[in-house]
Specification:
The protein is of the alpha/beta class and 363 residues long. The chain is built from eleven helices and 19 strands. It folds into two domains: 133 residues, 3-Layer(aba) Sandwich (Cytidine Deaminase, domain 2); 209 residues, Dihydrofolate Reductase, subunit A (3-Layer(aba) Sandwich), CATH 3.40.430.10. The protein binds NADP nicotinamide-adenine-dinucleotide phosphate.
Length: 363
């Protein structure tokens, strides 16, 4: 018997729009990833995506790339088109002016300035609109944007490498490399997808990491260190490699805001166990950081857990145990979180879990 095809044609065109959208990763933040496909008589006549922040939106690029007159075409877009004048004119106007007849949208834009108004504008111009095709994938694609645009706080991913017994190192004063090359590349991909990476003072001193994207293509995120008393040695790599912006959070009890050519020093209040994490994430959100990768060490991960400021955990488990290990990984996936990925990376295992959230559109 012939296999039954369950995916409908609209989902196929939408998944192409999502694939295009992904190509903007690392270049469009704080904007969302958006792709657009134009279809006429069952054939794709134009494709485009939002390529860089401040640049043309996906709809405009798809129209520019169209091989045929787009009049009466159907557009597939993973996110509701914008209807306000921002850095570029409203995409709803562009679709209307180019005679688009029908629009399939993955999800409504959670941005309160748009949220449903884009659909209204299209309908008013007699365009047939369908919302919710490929919605789950559309939602998963833009998690950082969705959180940031509604709360002004970044989507926080906490990452740790551990031994099978759950140790992330020998102790606080020693640097140990636990996982293999494949996990290393996976971490670099996470970095490439993040606007900023954060570590504690001790990790900065002990590991002296570059915190750059090297093993995959991508832009370097902003590097963030928590250093209450500004005692970090200025000999650290990241203070003079000029490969990315640096932010050091310090205590507002002792310091004022200050900017040097190699670092932006931002004071925040102190809490019980160090600098206040809720203040730090808010300050980063104000600086348009939509996605933050917390790379440790142990104390910092514990503080983010205590402040309930983690949205996603990525845990790599190496194949081998470490002798005399004492530095315990505090990241334990809560039972009510959703495991999205469980896989092997070479000899290591990776598990990714997210706090369960409802799709905004359904709220
Ligand atoms: N396996 C892994 O995935 C992994 C990843 C990263 C690091 N490591 C290892 O972890 C070890 C370092 O970890 P660690 O726990 O000792 O130190 P850490 O978390 O890297 O840094 C802690 C320090 O950050 C400063 N800080 C400021 N505000 C804080 C806050 N709210 N919460 C926590 N810290 C805050 C404090 O120093 P001040 O009071 O001076 O500000 C604190 O002592 C190293 O051995 C490193 O190699 C392992």
């Amino acid at each position: 018997m012939e296999p039954v095809l369950t995916t409908d044609i609209h989902e196929i065109f939408m998944s192409r729009a999502l694939e295009l959208a992904r190509q903007g990763r690392g270049n469009v933040s704080p904007n969302p990833l958006v792709g657009c496909v134009l279809v006429k008589e069952g054939e794709i006549i134009g494709e485009g995506y939002h390529e860089e922040f401040g640049g043309a939106h996906a709809e405009v690029n798809a129209l520019r790339n169209s091989r045929q007159d787009p009049v009466d075409a159907t557009a597939y877009i993973n996110l509701e088109p914008c209807c306000f004048m921002g850095k570029t004119p409203p995409c709803t106007d562009t679709l209307i002016q180019n005679g688009i007849a029908e629009v399939y949208i993955g999800m409504l834009d959670p941005n309160p300035e748009v949220n449903g108004k884009g659909v209204e504008a299209l309908k008013k111009a007699n365009i047939i609109v369908h919302v919710g095709v490929g919605e789950e994938d559309a939602w998963n694609l833009n998690r950082p944007f969705e959180k940031w645009i509604t709360t002004k706080i970044p989507f926080v991913t906490a990452k740790a490498a551990q031994t099978p017994a759950g140790f992330m190192g020998v102790d606080s004063d020693h640097s140990v490399w636990l996982t293999g090359e494949v996990s290393g590349r996976h971490t670099h991909q996470l970095r490439a997808e993040s606007d900023a990476i954060l570590i504690g003072r001790q990790t900065a001193v002990i590991d002296d990491p570059a915190l750059t994207v090297r093993h995959v293509p991508g832009e370097n995120p902003t590097r963030v260190i928590l250093d209450t008393n500004r005692t970090l040695p200025l000999t650290l790599n990241m203070f003079h490699d000029r490969k990315a912006k640096n932010i050091v959070f310090c205590s507002e009890n002792r310091f004022d805001r200050n900017k040097t050519h190699f670092c932006d020093y931002i004071p925040v209040p102190e809490a019980e166990n160090g600098l206040s994490i809720p203040h730090i994430v808010r300050k980063l959100g104000e600086k348009n950081v939509t996605s933050l990768l917390v790379e440790g060490g142990q104390e910092v991960l514990q503080s983010f857990l205590d402040a309930d400021c983690i949205d996603r955990m990525v845990i790599y488990t190496a194949a081998n145990e470490l002798e005399k290990a004492e530095l315990k990984n505090p990241l334990i996936i809560p039972e009510n979180w959703v495991i999205t990925i469980e896989d092997f990376l070479g000899e290591d295992r990776v598990i990714i879990a997210e706090k369960g959230v409802e799709c905004l559109q359904e709220l």
